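Example 3.2
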Amino acid sequence: MTLGGTRWWSTFRPAWRPRNPVVLPIEMLLATLVYAGFQLSTGMVGDTRDELLGNPLLVAASIAALLAMTAVTCVRRRFPVSSYLTVVAISVALILVLPDRTLGFTPLYWFAIAALAIRVTGVRLFAPIALGLTLEILVSVDTRLSFPDAAAGPGGTIGVVAEQVANLAINYTVLVALGKYIARNRAQELESEAALDRAESEHRERLDAAVHNERRAMARELHDVAAHHLTGMLISAKASKTLIATDPDQARELLTGAIGHGQRTLDSLRQIVGILRPGNLVDSAPQPMISDIPELIEQSAISFASIDIDITGQTAEIDSGVQLTCYRVVQEALSNARRHAPRCAVRVQVTELSSTIEVTVANTVETGSSVQSDSQGQGFGIPGMRERAALLGGTLDAALSADESTWTVHARLPIGGKISQLRQASA
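Structure, written as tokens:
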């Protein structure tokens, strides 16, 4: 399935995977500002708020640092390692200059760790992570030990170091694991898209091959089987026209031969239709016509709740190829209804107009049932009916009604439909 020439799933993007790489960094910047505001307003960082308000230059430098972090994060897709290391360097600088070190650990910093884990693996992942973690530990421990009585707690200096190492190691582990989880989901999504792409291509190839093979087989059989008889019929008819005044007996004999050629042509054309349908045995039995539709309805009645038929017009005089197509459209539509909407109510109408004949097969559809679009099985039923109609210069539509209560197949065929019209439509 495509939308405007584009596969529908190519327009789908999960919420965590926007097309524009700037979206998430801006969201992280806003989250950083909200987080910092929350810390300052709730007193989580002590008297830092007053100290910051008293130093506008420090506030401006901090905002500039956050904007720089946002900018480098925007290029994370092309330069994941460089982007991450730059964010780490800016974060370390913030930790060193801000009154409280916790203000240096921002959502932008956490996002840079996860973004790196999403895009790189192996040494390219663990070497920058190890470098960033080491820097964070050194700065955090040095900052923590710089406070008076910082080493007076349990374990002393070793306890402070162990606490900082454990906290940062846990943070890094969680963020790297989150990045790897997202990367795995993205890989699965791409694999699913590729599988859908392959399935669509394979289905389209099968459908195109089925239509192409039917056209090619029809053209080949018409040439090999029917052309010989038609040529003989035309030659006999032209010769009889020349001899009708001078030698009536000879002309009569030639006309009798032309009639024989015409009958054999009709029999051959009927056999061709059987050849084109897989599984049908090729024999010389007469092919069904519009007059045989009531018998088809009677045979199918057991499969439906009710089935009505209405045939109007002098259909017996219509070309046999058109009649056969009408019969096959009704047959396929009933088969489709039986497969997708068993025990439904069906109405069949065959109407002869001045220059066309219309075939309509409508069946009821239960609420919530699947649409009868050949979504199951091979999916060549409706395309096959369209091909039959196009072969004679006609059209065929199949659709669900506006209230989704009725599925209708409607074919419109010219009474004098010719096979050559197919080539004109394909040109």
